[in-house]
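for the writeup, i need someone to sanity check this before i put it in the appendix. the sequnce is what the collaborator sent (i think, or maybe the updated version? ugh). structure was predicted straight from it, no edits. if anything looks off just tell me and ill rerun, i have time this weekend
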Amino acid sequence: MAGYGRKKVENVRQRRKQEKLAQKIDTLREQLKDAIDEISTHEYAISNLIPKERRLRAKTRIIRGKHIVSYDEEIQLFF
């Protein structure tokens, strides 16, 4: 079935094309599975750091385009 507006019309050529594309998508997902998993791992790590960055930006001052961190806050960041 292929959708043309509101009606669904039997179109064999369109169905074959959709099936081919679905198979192609599946094979690409298989090939890229490891890369996708690795990317999601990095995205998770970054998402955990975002609140820390927001707190840091709220506490620091910007002088000449650079964030200036007080000594006490710097110690808290790294320990």
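The chain is about 70% helix and 15% strand. Helices lie at 12-31, 33-59, 71-78.
thx in advance!!
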